[in-house]
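Feature request disguised as a bug: please show the residue count (1100) next to SusC/RagA family TonB-linked outer membrane protein in the output. Example input:
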Amino acid sequence: MNKKHYFCKYTKFICNRLMVASYILFFLSANVTNAYATSNPAEVTKSGDIIIKVANKPIKEVLTLIEQQSKFVFVYNTESVNLDKPVTLNITSGSINEIMTQLLKGSSLSYEISDRQILIFRSNQKDSKTSAKMLSSGTVLDENGEALIGVNVQVKGETSGTITDIDGKYSLNVPAGKSLVFSYVGYKRLEMKAQSQMRVEMQSDAELLNEVVVVGYGTMKKSDLTGSVSGVKAKDFNTGLVSSPSQLIQGRVAGVNITNNGGEPGGGVTIRVRGSNSIRSGQDPLYVVDGVPLDASDDLQPSGASTTGIGSTGSKNPLNFLNPDDIESIDILKDASATAIYGARGANGVIMITTKKGSEGQAKVSYSAYASVSELPNEYEVLSADQYRAFASEKGITIDDGGANTNWQDEIFRTALSHNHNLAVSGGGKKGNYRASLSFQDQEGIIKKSGMKKYTGRFYLSQKTFNDKLLFEASLMATRTKDKRAPLGQSGGYEGDLLLTALKVNPTYPIFNEDGTYYQKSQDVRNPVAMIDLTNDNTETDRILANVTGTLDLWKGLKYKMNVAFDETKASRKVTQDKQLIYMSDKGTANINNVEASNFLIENYLTYDFKVKDIHKFNLLAGHSYQKFRNYWYGFSETGFDIDNIDYLYDLSFGKNTDITGTSNITVNELQSFFGRVNYNLLDKYLLTANFRVDGSTKFGENNKYGFFPSAAFAWRMSEEQFIKSLNVFDNLKLRLSWGITGNQEIPNKISQIKLGSTDGAVLDGGTTVTQGVTLTRTPNPDLKWERTEQINIGFDFAILKNRLSGTFDFFSKTTKDVLLQVYSISPAPTTQVWSNVPDMKIVNNGFEVGLNGVIIDTKDWRWNAGVNFSSITNKVKNLPMSSITTGNPSGPGITGFSSQIIKSGYPIGTFWGYNFLGFDENGKSIYEKDADGKVVEKCIGNAQPDFSLNFNTSVAWKNFDVSLYFNSVVGNDIYNNLANVIDNLSMFSKGSNTTVHATQTNEAFNNVLDYSNRYIEDGSYLRLSSATLGYTVPLKNKRYISNLRFTLTGNNLFVITGYSGYDPEVNSNRTSNGVPALGIGWTNYPMARSYSLGVSIDF
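Example output, currently without the count:
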């Protein structure tokens, strides 16, 4: 269909490396003029829009040609209007009025144009609108009473029809006694007897709306799935103050545990899909955005400075570059049948993120915004200045009274303000569609001088050409993120980072001296306000993701697709600490750290859909993929800045060192893959799926570059069997069985290669010069290969009560083999340890998941939906080749050098080992459990992994008002409260540190020696009201200019019920010890905020 077209010009801003993608985008955007029709169909067409060249053809055929070349629809009464008269026309230009006048010249017919409709009637009739036997008019609404635009209204058994306008209204001449058929995508087809005035309510087809989920290299109907795949659509996302896609689905999917590493804006998360599968290899899932697998090896953030006394800062969220408002759906592939198509990267699950596209119809403009206020939910309960003085007096301890009353937590925390704005334009025609969006987010952190600003732009374009045989799709996403971070580390030792300092510093100390300088008692006693004011930690990250695909229809059901993508990140982190900070012995520091990362992908694959006699249905997939990752880290640092009033970063040469310290590192990894899939459907009852992938990676040894990862699955749609149908109970009942093997390639870089280092040096040949030598520090292992995870899954899907109650049950067992560890070398060997796959060792995860959804009330004015998901996973390590592996080094007095978590055979990952604390003796000294010989014994004192998680959501709507609540809970996990280890005791009070109210209520001695024990192991179980939203959709009578207007009020993290004494029980970090991650340790994490958001969304 040739139509009048338009497209939006956009500014080319891609760097030279994206020049090829720019040319492709330009080509496609230029060709979009062959697809999009004018937004006003009733506008008089211009020259060249409609071409009519016919000779002795009936008027009816000419009308068909006009309909094919425009958006006009002809309405006429077949009994009174004769369109068989032949005409001869040669029209290459002119308006629709001129064309119709020439077409009907010399006939007994006239016409009338109304919006998209052209009514043809006999000229001798006085009222054209009564020329048909009856004029049926009405309004088509959805189940919420909102007008539906573009609904097809057809006279049953005839070709005449129309579509509803922007107000949901239609008008159509209908022969007496005829019925009208109403149809609309996503709604149930409705047939009603025509009346002169009608009010039509269409019901959404929930099964149709949710029937498609995204899987690797395609989509599938839910009814045809054989694997375990869970999807969350945009309408079900978590709401409120959201900065990353992972927050949209937290707690929404059974078997997917998402834990925030802290409350920092854009802060990192820990995601585990069906448990922990490894010890030293990466455990994060693979992220795939619009078919592009991302680099999972790092969060692509510069490491930052080694800030004195603060420790390493936490990671950022790897999905921060995405605008949550651009996301259409998130699908999680959980079992091996679903993830094996990604082979060596599928062991930890796959998260498929699909962004929004345009749709056929007039241009739609959408704007949404929210403003938020965030606060610290509760302060840590330490002594106030008055309590500090009183307790010291009571115990006869002389304190260094600074004469002030300072609440240091009040000085570092604030009420934070945030706002977010999203603007999108979308539309399209039958040949293609487009969507462009812009977003700006400014989120303050509840710690002063911390926050995040994010600017995001995205453009999507699709275009069909070559008689609809070729489909081009292109998308471009660009993001700039500016992070400001507080001087906060995952551990700060005794001196403490910002948070630990604010808790333990003497509350009688003032903030400033009388001369206005910062009060700083000594190098070991810091001033939290000075730390904030005199430390700057800023990161600027630019990221571009460009993706171009072409799909060619080769033959009936046979298609070829090419996917080319480029993902580039450039980030620079700049950290300075002013020389006024007296704990800085080097008179100030400056650090610049950068990362440049690129990800190139090219894929080619074929799909073939065919069936045999409607009995056998096949879907075949075969393809090849090549992906290359290049990461380059480099940085510079300097100390000793004697000049005042300068920006240290302006010129590092102002520092004391002649040579500026520099570091760099580069890694290049390549992955070549061959993959395939067969889906077989017999009688729509019996479903078989087989996947395979062969991956070759440069990360592994020369003898094991390639790995083979197969899977197979079977599903039985039992509800299609007659003996199940006869029960008249189940609307859907399906049994799923699957088996498969997936891999994990996220191992430390270059560990299969040789590594050399320098020796301490020696005097050779009796001389006096010390000569350094070269020694082997890592032995190469050419047999190094993937860890392999074998998974078995049994699942049931069901729906009853006319689909008002539906759910899934899954039971699974995952076993990881060929676990990668550093083991002792077999003598003689140049190094004591070597990286190797341990053949007999296993990591086993067994569990089950339940997901239930129900429609409790569904009437004209009232709707009540509810959903719940439950998951329980047990984890165990078997056949560890050494006695134990340690990790999780806590910090604080008396426990330096301890390991809080020890991995042993027969126990789960994340197990805490230490002394069993029994209380205090009469002298106030700690008592620990002893064995029969009177020796204090170390034992298992807890585990960081929960027994189960339970999440619940519900929504109630009455007319235009709606309320939704979302609760999430975790039960049975333990947390080591490292903050309490430093604060909640009296051992440091006599030395000037603050303590908690709880500690003053014990009989602990001031000289009590601390040991690592379960004294600070706490129950981490909690129930959280994660979000509550009150919404109101404005009932608009005239939708000609505004089609939707909605207001929301959302509260996030409104309350938490827990026995944990820290800031928040949702604690975690990505901190590792010797490459082994630690779980459930409450270091000085950025506290979680409570927020209140007011939002508005409007569609034009």
